[in-house]
Amino acid sequence: MLEALNLLVVLKGLGGNYLLPRDTLQRIVNFSAGRQLSYFEIVVLLYYVESIPSYAVIKKLLLASIKERLDDLSDIRSSAEKIYLFLDVMTCPFVEDKVKSRFAVALYKQINKKNPTPSQASDFMLRLSKYPWFVSWKDADFLSSLEKKELLKGY
After folding, report:
1. Which of 100, 104, 116, 136 could share a disulfide with 141, CB 3.0–4.6 Å?
2. The pTM is what?
């Protein structure tokens, strides 16, 4: 699967004329019910599909997978993959702010054991999304940042 993900990143870098049809992409990535997508699959596919209308179905599946993975943040201090996903989602330009806000509020509650005020929630989300964490969503740095993560053996 990693080879396919690498090819998707390369194809994306070549430009819009080289993007795969949605059906082909869905055959490459197994979106079957009950299968949890990996951190790398989610990040690469978010980068690949962006907010391109023809990939709306895939993006919806990705967002559902992200929500499923980040619904319970009780183990975020001990799960490298979960914190990577959380922080990269917070900086991803292809994830809506309302989704990011939901996750930021959940983490705030996890850390502080209380609900944030609207101002605290907004400030917390802004601080989390201000700088790139593990993935640079810019074209030039995307592949190299993913390769560095793959070399980590923490999970």
Report:
1. 136
2. 0.85
